[in-house]
């Protein structure tokens, strides 16, 4: 630490990148975010570029959003909605990994709640896909669009229905007025449940008003899907409500 104290003030190019990853000193410091004293020293440099990108087009803020505790002073002036090569913002990264505290800070800074990545997915969709209830709730309370659909027609609700461990996320989305019968390009959330055999989410959807007898473009029903993908328990569930 003593050597850093001496070298940092006299380093000519504080934004110089290393050859392997294209990281600057600030990128490296953010990867070791517990070293607050180093970050504080860097901040004293008026020529520090807080929006600099490495070879993966990640800014220091992106790196902090991977789950390290964000230190407000470190990224003061950073572009909160900057996108990398995958069109991910820091909020996408935080949502995709369930980092609720990080998300709250980013939202407080004015991060775009409905920003799309290269798949057309919003942060809420990223959280829903992995069943992160707490992060979903933070986004929904802040005003995220619960019924936004990607080009293929999927919504956050349909993404939460892909795994039977994500029932609570499904319930939360419905509580915030997710459309249980959003058709998508091919099928509704209930069809997604029938395809994966997700009985628990299926029951939640049906009790919330999902259409049990409706057909998709090819003429198949939810019951047809459950039989086709060999999910006898889901077949029984559908028959209860037919």
UniProtKB/TrEMBL annotation:
Q: Which domain of life is it from?
A: Eukaryota
Whether Transport counts among this entry's keywords is no
Which residues lie in coiled coils?
Answer: none
Q: Which UniProt keywords apply?
A: ANK repeat
Name the SMART domains for this protein: ANK (SM00248)
Note the Pfam families from the entry: Ank, Ank_2
Spans of the ANK repeats are: 86-118, 119-147
Q: What is this protein called?
A: Ankyrin repeat protein
**Native species:** Aromia moschata
């Amino acid at each position: 630490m003593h050597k850093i104290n001496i070298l940092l003030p006299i380093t000519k190019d504080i934004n110089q990148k290393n050859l392997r990853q294209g990281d600057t000193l600030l990128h490296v410091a953010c990867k070791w975010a517990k070293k607050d004293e180093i970050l504080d020293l860097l901040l004293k440099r008026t020529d520090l570029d807080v929006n600099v990108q490495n070879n993966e087009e990640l800014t220091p803020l992106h790196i902090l959003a991977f789950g390290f505790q964000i230190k407000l002073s470190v990224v003061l002036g950073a572009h909160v909605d900057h996108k990398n090569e995958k069109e991910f913002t820091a909020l996408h990264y935080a949502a995709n990994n369930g980092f609720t505290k990080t998300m709250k800070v980013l939202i407080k800074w004015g991060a775009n709640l409905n920003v799309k990545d290269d798949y057309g997915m919003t942060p809420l969709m990223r959280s829903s896909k992995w069943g992160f209830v707490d992060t979903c709730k933070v986004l929904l309370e802040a005003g995220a669009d619960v019924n936004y659909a990607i080009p293929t027609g999927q919504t956050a609700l349909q993404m939460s229905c892909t795994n039977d461990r994500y029932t609570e996320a499904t319930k939360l989305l419905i509580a915030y007025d997710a459309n249980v019968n959003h058709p998508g390009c091919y099928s509704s959330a209930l069809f997604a449940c029938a395809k994966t055999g997700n009985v628990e989410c299926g029951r939640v959807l049906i009790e919330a008003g999902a259409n049990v007898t409706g057909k998709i473009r090819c003429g198949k029903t939810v019951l047809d899907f459950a039989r086709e993908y060999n999910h006898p328990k889901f077949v029984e569930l559908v028959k209860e409500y037919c």
